[in-house]
Structure formats: structure tokens, C-alpha cells
What we know:
Elements: H1 3-20, E1 28-32, E2 44-48, H2 67-74, E3 79-80, E4 83-84, E5 91-97, H3 102-110, H4 112-120, E6 125-131, H5 139-150, H6 155-164, H7 176-185, H8 191-197, H9 201-216, E7 224-228, E8 236-239, H10 244-254
Parallel strand pairs: 5-6
Antiparallel strand pairs: 1-2, 3-4, 4-6, 5-7, 7-8
Helix pairs in contact: 1-10, 2-6, 4-10, 5-6, 5-9
Amino acid sequence: MSNKREREKRREERLREEERVDTGDRRTRLLQLGAGAVFLMIAVVVVLIVINSSSSGSGGDTKIEEAASVHKLIDGIPQEQLVLGDPKAKVHLIEFGDLQCPICRAYSEQVLPEIIQKRVRSGETTLEFRNFIIIGNESVPAGAAAIAAGTQGKGWDYIELFYRNQGTENTGYVTEEFIEAVAKGAKVPDFAKWNKERKEKALTEELNKTTKEAQNFGMNGTPSFAIEGPGTKGIELLGTGESAGRLEEAIEEAK
């Protein structure tokens, strides 16, 4: 059997296994999309959460924590916009996430560090974050701030630090003061430029674009992953990766 057929067989087996997983053990988020003129074209967001977050503390204040650990994780890895890793990498792993999503935070803390250390830092794959606005309106300025930080090579610093200081969703914690405190903790070089760019219409349009892209892929929850590489047929959807091991398996298959 050729390597390509072996990869396809493993991928089919993995997808079948994921379908058998009891979704009752995971948080899920379902979207109802309306035709009304609602910001970012999202009419209603219905959130179903089984509380199992490992986060400690309420978060969402301006006393930013874990900046040192985030910089240690990210420092030395190339960044371009919201893409982390060597642009020459053959495999591209994509996360569609919402910065307010507590499940995304859990992945940020428990799953992705292993991928970043083993696969991204080594140059095997890039890891890209694409905003999927699913939680609520507070996710909009949060996502725009991450994009603006990305133009200065600090997008992933911002994303990781936001997650580690995340508050309870849609409680009003995403204030100007909080957003600015995260940017300062992420060491965004030109703070004034970042502060101006994050409020520009073009960034809202970018949020709209990536949210629509996720919807077109049929994604209905965050985080959702996709992958592209020599061993894939274009961008292939992975769903929720569940573990670093499953994502690493997908990376191997995509080589």
C-alpha cells in the first residue's frame, strides 16, 4: 500500500473514531444563523456549556498574569500576522477560535503548547489562528486587537496571554483597559500604532471574513481545526482535536 493510501486509511479511521466519541463529555456550541442585519451576520448564539474548565481565578482584570510563561513558549518562533512558525513549513495547522471561548483557553493551556514546542518550533508546521466570532460582541474588539498585534509580530503573544487572563464570557470584562493591558503584557512594540489599528474598519472586515469562512466549512463550535499539507487534498477539516496526540497524528498524515 502506498504512503498516500496509508495516510488516507489512517485519516478515515481517525474520523470514524472521533464520530464515536461521546459528545456529552465535551462542551459544545451551536449557532443559529439569521438573515437579519446583526453585527458580523450572526443572529443568535446559543451556548451550551458543561463546566469543566481547568482555569483558575475569575480572570478578566488588568493585572495580567503568566506573561513570562507565554513569552517563553513563543519567543524565537517566527510570526507573521496570526501565523506562528516557519513560513517554509510544509504543513499548516489552522485553529478557528474565539478569544472569549473557555474551551479554547483550555486548549491553549493544555494541548497547543506541546504542538508549538514539538512541531512548530522545529519548523515542521505553522499554526495559524483565525477568529471565529461565536460567543458574543465582546469577542469582536478582542479579535481585532489580536490581529493588530499580529501586524507587529506579537499576534500569538497576545492570543496566548488573552486566554490566560480570560474572564467569564459576555460579562463586560473585555474593556478598553483589559485589552490594552494584554497588549502591554504581550510587549507590542508600537503601542500607539496598535491602539489605532485595532479600531479600523478593515479589521472588522477581517473578523467577518474568517467567521464566514468557518461557517462555510460547516464548523459550529470553537475551537475547530483544519490542516493543509502535501498529504492532504487542500484544506481538510479536523474538528476539535481533543488532544495533542491527535493533532500530531494529523500533522504526520499531512506531510
